[in-house]
Design brief:
414 residues; alpha+beta; nine-stranded mixed β-sheet; six-stranded antiparallel β-sheet; 13 helices; 31% helix; globular
């Protein structure tokens, strides 16, 4: 049963939210953050990417950078750019993209649920990335940025979303990327109790996005528990901040591949090899989108092709074998192109579907890449089936959009 609690959020005053709020730390590099924060001393980038306050090129993992994050976090609070709520609340956070809105609950998620596998993952994490975020959580003694969860739909929680969102929101703005962000404070005690009880009925929570942040937040909480001789279990560090969305609200966007060479094959030889496992149809110059599961779009030599996996090349009964990322990784990238490690092979790159298939065409037409492969997106049902089976998705399988805006609320660990 999922255990969550309300918390005393640390938030910007209404009139400052657009200046404070930022994109998540891991979707842009230091230089991009420096540009976005230019002339804005209130930008959260000064806390989540504090290397922007040093000379360009300064090591972002230097101890001074973490110290700067702490200094800036304190400074934001002293100046009233971030203010802690008087009481423990839940919050509702809505994101709007392309006229479609998804609503999530901002909660304190229980560290033990992560450690015991009740908060389920579908991706491997890298220790160096975990360690970086653990340092950030430790030194600030806070979860500055939330993680992104999904949970199986629950009608009572859905009704609370409907009721709360009829009222005036605390924040309501459109970010520079065109995505809308709306935020409500739930301070009614009866509603708070209902939310806590309804989450207790939910078997598991699923990490949608933010596996490194989840690991870091939970591991620091666990570390604090072990290091506290008077640990009781009700301390704030036993929880970390997450935005949990009903699964039906979420849509996974395609995550596509571009490859630098054909492993010594000519275009014709490559297409002939593809034809062993796929029905290959030339579609011409007009962009072709994958039509459904097991259908791929290939861009090569100025033309689009439809590739349909032949019967027997996939296993719909297996949560991993059914995935098109598995089919393409095994039958195209590994068997034909000799790419076996998607994480480290420099011949391959990945393009989030938010950029559109035009970006794939551009990367190939420019000569930077030789071919592009577009995949039909994974569904939430597939993600949940994989997490439930204890399996891990292949790298670069899911792309969630819009990303959570950071800086709408922060969770302190004491």
């Amino acid at each position: 049963m999922a255990k969550v609690k309300p918390f005393r959020g640390v938030r910007p005053p209404k009139h400052l939210v657009e200046q404070v709020a930022s994109r998540p730390y891991d979707v842009l590099n230091s230089e991009e953050a420096r540009k976005e924060a230019d002339g804005n001393e209130k930008s959260l980038y000064h806390i989540i990417k504090p290397e922007i306050d040093f000379e360009p090129g300064f090591d972002e993992h230097h101890p001074d950078v973490y110290d700067k994050a702490v200094e800036n976090f304190m400074n934001f609070q002293e100046k009233g750019w971030l203010v802690q709520d008087e009481k423990e609340n839940y919050y509702i956070y809505a994101q709007t993209m392309d006229g479609r809105t998804q609503y999530g609950f901002v909660v304190g998620a229980w560290v033990d649920d992560y450690m015991n596998g009740r908060i389920k993952k579908h991706e491997l994490t890298r220790r160096d990335k975990e360690e970086d975020r653990m340092k950030h959580v430790r030194c600030n003694n806070a979860n500055i940025e939330p993680v992104f969860f999904a949970f199986p739909d629950n009608e009572t929680l859905e009704q609370i979303i409907r009721d709360v969102t009829k009222s005036e929101p605390e924040y309501d703005f459109v970010a520079p990327d065109g995505f809308g962000h709306t935020f409500w404070v739930i301070d009614d005690n009866a509603t708070i109790d209902t939310i806590t009880k309804e989450f207790e009925k939910i078997e598991a929570l699923y990490i949608a996005d933010g596996h490194h942040r989840s690991a870091a937040a939970a591991l620091v909480g666990n570390e604090k528990a072990k290091n506290n001789p008077d640990h009781k279990g009700d301390e704030e560090y036993n929880y970390f901040m997450a935005v949990a969305f009903p699964a039906s609200h979420l849509r996974i966007i395609d995550y596509n591949r571009v490859v630098k060479d054909l492993n010594g094959l000519s275009d014709e030889e490559f297409l002939a090899k593809l034809a062993e496992n796929f029905i290959v149809e030339e579609k011409g110059e007009e962009t072709y989108h994958p039509a459904g599961l097991h259908n791929f779009a290939l861009y090569l030599g100025g033309k689009w092709y439809s590739l349909t996996a032949k019967e027997g090349t996939y296993n719909d009964a297996d949560p991993i074998g059914v995935l098109d990322v598995t089919v393409s990784s095994d039958l195209i990238l590994r068997d034909i192109l000799g790419i076996t490690d998607l994480r480290s092979d420099k011949r391959i790159d990945f393009v989030g579907g938010i950029r559109g298939l035009e970006e794939l065409k551009r990367r190939v037409d420019s000569g930077e890449m030789k071919m592009a492969l577009a995949l039909y997106p994974v569904t939430m049902d597939q993600l949940i089936a994989i997490a439930d089976s204890g399996n891990i998705m292949p790298p670069k399988t899911t792309w969630f959009e819009p990303k959570l805006r950071s800086g709408l609320v922060i969770h302190k660990l004491d």
